[in-house]
Amino acid sequence: MTQDLLPTYTAASPPRPSAEELRARIPGWGVDLDPADRPSYPKLGDYTGQTGAHWDFPERQPGAEDRERSIEHAFVPPVFGTAQPLRGLSGRLRRLAYDRWSEGRNAHWLTLIAADRVDVFESAFGALLRGRPDNLVAETGVVAEVHHHGLSSRLGERRTKHQWMDPFVVLGPWVLAGAGAVAVVRRLLR
Q: What global pTM score does this model have?
């Protein structure tokens, strides 16, 4: 890989237009170039050209070929997260978003949001299969509402206008998933 292909991850700063080019293109650019115009000048040192990096190009982390990469970039950064590897249908949706659409397209982000929703259902279904389903009563704070004056603390506020919807929002997806499971089982039994 040549140096001109890797301007972002080198010890040197990325290439920049000259001050004259920027001043011509952006109105008001460079008003603080004179140190006398900067309120913080005495405190700031002159670090021009000094990045503090002890390397020219950082060592690359292994495993980059399995990571999702935006189509705008030639490669993944030298260091990247590996905490949540892609898995299941949600992983395939994420891979699709990165392989097909630019980060500037709505389809990219909407597909990633859909993958997050699918991941929630995959996790809930996996917990159910392992025999440790989610505890909806404890996790939604219903017990705290009863024991810690939840309703009385909201009386007179605008929040009570939507409280009637909370059971539908919390239980609705579970009821729909149960109805879908029953429909699938009935169809398989036929």
A: 0.52
